[in-house]
Structures are given as C-alpha cells and as structure tokens.
Amino acid sequence: MSFSTTADIPVRVTSDNTASERRVTPSWTIAELKNKLEPVTGIPPSSQQLTLRVPHAPQPIPISSHDEENTQIAAFSLQPYVELHVADSRPLTARPDFADTTGVEKYVMPEEEYDKLQDSVLAWKKRNKLGRFDPNKEEKDQMELKRQYDTVEARKIVVGARCRVGASDLDRRGTIRYVGEVDEIPNGGVWVGVETDEPTGRNDGSVQGKSYFKCEAKHGSFVRPDRIEVGDFPVIDDLGDLEEI
C-alpha cells in the first residue's frame, strides 16, 4: 500500500507484528492517518495508540488529540525516517494471532502429481539411484549391519557389561541391557540399550510401547555402538567420591 503524495515524509511504521517504510503527508489529520494505518498494521483506528519515537528524545511523543478529525499530524515532530509506532489497545484475547497458522489451510500436493515432477528431490534420487532406488540398497544395508555388529564385537559390547555413554567429560555411566536391532527406530541398524545410573535417559527400556528391557523411567537409552565405551565404570557414589575441602 502506498501513501505517496507530493509532500510526503518517509517514516518507519512499526507495530507488534509489522514493520515497514511508508510515506505520510503532514496535512493528513490524525483520523486520516489511522484509517490508512489499519490495512498496514491490522489494528482498527479506534484501537490505535500512535507515538513518534524520535532519536535522542527522552520518551516517545504521543500523536493524539481531543479532535482527531481536524488535528493535522504536522502539529507533531515529523522527521524523515522517524519511527511511527502503532500500539494496540485491545486486550490480548481480542487481538488476532497472526503467528498462529493452525487454522490456515495448507496445500498438500497429491503423491501422483509429485511423482510426475522432474525437478523434485524424488526425481533426483531416482536419476542418481539413491536411497530406496539404489538397486544395491539391500546389499549395502546388510554390509552396514555387519559393520555395526563387528563394532559391537570389537568393543566387547555385551549384555550385563558396565559402560560409559557418549563423551567422556559427561561421564554418563550405566549397564548394557540390550544389543540388537530396534524396529521402531528409523534407519535400522544395531542399537545398544543402556540402563543409566542417573535419570539421564529418555525412556524405561521401551520404544513406542514395545519393551526391550526394563528399568525406571528416564533411565533407559538406545544409542549406536560407536558411542559406547565398555570398561570398569562403577556406580558413582555422590558422597563418597566428593573431594575433601
């Protein structure tokens, strides 16, 4: 929307939800200005509280009058590129939530139309035989699975072993309770189920309702074998392990 006239002054119009550069005419009345600001800010004229935020001014300058129909905005400190802020006097519950998109109808392309596109990610994968379009995918998946089981054997990851999970500086300790595949976790492969000593996990040994081992809530974790270090990691005694001060 343009406010352009021969005697325009450029200003920055801001509100809680909008910010844009506009041009105003000093001969406009306050009522005229508010009417023009409604489609810009979405705030009805009767609910607008206008202020000018002039650089180096101790506080914003209100643009208001008992007679807004006849008071021109030239009576206020209009300067090029000054900020004209529009506040909304309505209660929060009465204001539209422009950030809420839950009620906005979204377009979803039918799968048959998407399949016909030549410039989509799907078409690119088909051309390059990647992912599920790779004729050797099953063989590669089996090779990756074997590599992960080799890692399990090399790291001596077995059920009942004590371990440390993740980075050594975190010192998350626990006991291995499960080694194998977890169908409910995407991307497949080998997972190691750990019962952690502290409540630093994400579950109780189950994934999407299927139990792989049992432990207290937030003491269960499933991680990849390369994040497991097996060794002599006793349960930390918070009191006994404190250094004497």
UniProtKB/TrEMBL annotation:
Keywords: Chaperone, Cytoplasm. PROSITE patterns: CAP_GLY_2, UBIQUITIN_2. This is CAP Gly-rich domain-containing protein. Residues 189-224 form the CAP-Gly domain. InterPro entries: CAP-Gly_dom_sf (IPR036859), CAP-Gly_domain (IPR000938), TBCB_Ubl (IPR045172), Ubiquitin-like_dom (IPR000626), Ubiquitin-like_domsf (IPR029071). SUPFAM superfamilies: Cap-Gly domain, Ubiquitin-like. Its main location: cytoplasm. It comes from the Eukaryota. Pfam families: CAP_GLY, Ubiquitin_2. Residues 7-52 form the Ubiquitin-like domain. It is found in: Cytoplasm. It comes from Tuber borchii. Belongs to the TBCB family. Residues 1-23 are annotated as: Disordered. One of its GO terms (molecular function) is microtubule plus-end binding. Signal peptide: none annotated. GO terms for cellular component: cell cortex; microtubule plus-end; nucleus. The keyword Ribonucleoprotein does not apply. One of its GO terms (biological process) is post-chaperonin tubulin folding pathway.
